[in-house]
Amino acid sequence: MSNLLNILKIKQPLSNFDSGALIDVLLVDDREDNLYALEAVLSSPNYNLIKAQSGDQALRYLLDHRPAVILMDVQMPDLDGFETAGIIKRNERTRDIPIIFITAIDKDEHYVHKGYDYGAVDYLYKPYDPHILKSKVAVFAELAQKNRMLLEAERQLRLNEKKDRERQLAQLELKSMRREQTEQKKYLDLIEGIDQGVVWSADTNSLAISFVSKSAERILGYPIEQWSEERSFLLNHIHPDDRRQMNATIQQVVGEKRNLNLDHRMIKADGTEIWLHTGLRLASKGENAGHELRALSVDITKLKEAEELLRENKRRADFLSEASLILSQSLDSLITLSHIRQLIVPQIADNALVHVLNHEGIPHCVVESPDQAPNIDAKSSELVADVSEVVKKGVPVFHSKAIILPLSIRGKTFGALSCLIHESDREFNQDDLAFLEDLTSRVSTSLDNSNLYQEVQAAVRSRDEFFSVASHELKTPLTPLKLQIQILMRTLKNDSLKDLKPERIEQILKASDRQIGKLTSLIDNLMDISRISRGKMKLDLDHFDLMELIRDVLDRFASEIYNAKCEVKFDVPKDTPASLTVFLDQFRVEQIFVNLLTNAIKYGAGKPIHISVAVFQDSVKISFQDSGIGVAPEDKKRIFERFERGVSGLSFSGLGLGLYIVKQIVDAHGGKIELASELGTGSTFTVTLPIEAKNTES
Ligand code: ADP
Hints:
By secondary structure, this protein is α+β, with helices and mostly antiparallel strands. Helices cover 47% and strands 21% of the residues.
C-alpha cells in the first residue's frame, strides 16, 4: 500500500480544452528519475499526471480509474511493461485505454512487435523527443477529452430525456389526479343530489358504516356522525320485523356476490316509521383493500302509503259491493241488518249493534252482539246516551273506539248503527267514518226499500181486506132491506095489504130506513175518503150549540145504545154552561161524535160510556170514554190511518175508516185527538177543538 503513496497527482489545467476537467495520464516506470522526466515534459495545467512505479501499482490505480493514456516503461522488475499491458488489455473495462511503451533498449523488430501485440498504440525510444511525446500524449488527451465530452453530452441527453419523461409522467399523473378528483366530485355531487335516497357503505362483517350521504340526516333525522359512531347503527334502527330479512339479504349479497334489493322499514329519530327500498351490492375498496357493502336506500314511504290506500280502497269497494248485494237480497229489514253486522264484524269493528226507535220513540237494540262477543252491553249507559243523541240530532258520534251513525229514511232518523272496537288496539279514523257513512246510507236506502215494500204489501193486504169487508158491510144492510121489501111485495101480490096494520108498515119502513141510513153512511164515509185523499175537505163553518149537538147525537143513537146494553153518561162540570156556541163545521163535528160514539158502543158493548166536556178560553175538550176491549200500545198510532184496524173483521165489523175521518176533521179544524187506552180496560178518545175555527183546507 505504501507504494500507492507514490502515485502523485498533479493537477494542471489543460489549455486546449475548455471543459475545466483535468485529463488523467498514467505514467508507469520503476525508476523515479524517469518518472520525473516524463512529468517535466508533460507538465500541463490540463493534465493530471499519475505516477506508478510498478505494473502492480498501475493495475491497482486502474481498478477505479480510467486515464486518457498510459505511458508504460517496458523494463520493470516483477511485472514488466508488456505483462502489465497484457493484463490491462485482457480486462474488459480497461481494454480500450491506449498504451504508449517507452524503452531505452531493444529497438529491434521483435520487441516492437511484442509491444504492439500487447496492445500498444505507440512505441517511444529513449531518448525521446519531448515534443513528439507531448504531441502524442496530447492526441490521446484530446481524444479522451472528446470522449468525455461525448459521454457528458450523452449523459446530459439522457438526463434531459429522463427529466422530460419524468415531467411528462408527472403531468400525466396530475392530469389523472385531476380527472379522478373531478370524477370523485361528480360522484359526490351525484350522491348528494339524490334527494329521496341515502347512499351508504358498510363493513361486510361488522356492518359498521364507513360512508353515508348527507341526505341521511334529512330523511331519517339522525346526525350523520351517529351512523358511523354508533355500533350496529343499521340493525339498531331497522324495524324489528324487517331485521331478519335485512340480515339474510346482506349475507346473500356478501356470500354469493349478488346485487339484491329489499323493501324494509326503519325507525326515524322522531320514532315514526319510514319505508325504504334498498339496493345492496358488494364492491372492492381498492387494490388489496378487500370488499365493502354499498347501498342506496330510497324513501318509498309515499309509494307504500299509496299502495296501502289502493289496497284499502279496493277492500272497501269490495266490501261495499258485497254489502250492496246483501242489501238487495232481502226485503226483511231485520235479516238485512243482521247480515250487515256480519259484514262489519270483524273486518271493520269488533262489534256492531243496531238500535231502532220503538213505538214510544225510545232506541231499542234489535241487532245485538252474539253470545261469544265479550264485554258488550247494548244497554251500557254511555252507548245508550250516544245512540239517543245520534237518533235525536241525526248526526254521527265519533270516538276513537266507537262510531255511531244515524239510520235515516227520507230525512227521518229511525235508529242507529254502532260500530265498536274493544278487542284490538286499532282506533277509528276519519276514513272509517266516511266509509261507514257510505255504508249506512246504503243500509238506510235498503231499509227504506224494504219498508216501502212492506208498506206496499200492507196496503195491498188492507185493500184486499177492505174490499172483502166493504162488500160485506154494504151487503149487511141490504139483506134486511131486501127482506122488508120482499115482505111488502109478497103482501101486495097476495092482495092482503089491507090486512097489514099501519104500525107494522111503519115498523117495516123504519127498519128499511135504518138500513138505508147505514148504507148512506157507509157510502158517505167512502166518499169522504176519496175527497180527503184528493185534499178536498172544505169546512162549512157556522155558529151552533155544541152541547145541543151532543145531546141530539145521543138521542139519535138511543136505540143502538139500548141494544148494546150500554149506559151513557153525559157529564158536564158544574161551572160549564148548558149551551156552548162554537164556530165550526156542524156536519163534520157531528161526524166526529157519531164515529167516536159508535166505536164506544161497538168496542165497549155492555159497559158504561162516559162523555165529558171541558170548556177552556179558546177551546173545548170532548172525551168519549168506554170500558171495552182497549187498544194495544203498538196499534195506538196506526188505527188513525186509512183502512187500519186493530181488530179482525170476523169479530167486529167495520172498514177502518172512522178514526181516519175523525182525525182529518179534527186536523182541518186545527184541533187534536188523543187516545189513552189499555188493553182489556177501555179507551178514552179526547178531541180538542177550537171554539172558533178558521176555514182551512185539509
Ligand atoms: P173500524 O171501527 O171500522 O174498524 P175505525 O177507524 O173507527 O174503524 O177504528 C179503527 C180501529 O180502532 C178499530 O178497528 C179498533 O181496532 C180500534 N178502535 C176504535 N175505537 C175503539 C174503541 N173505542 N175501543 C177499542 N178499540 C177501538
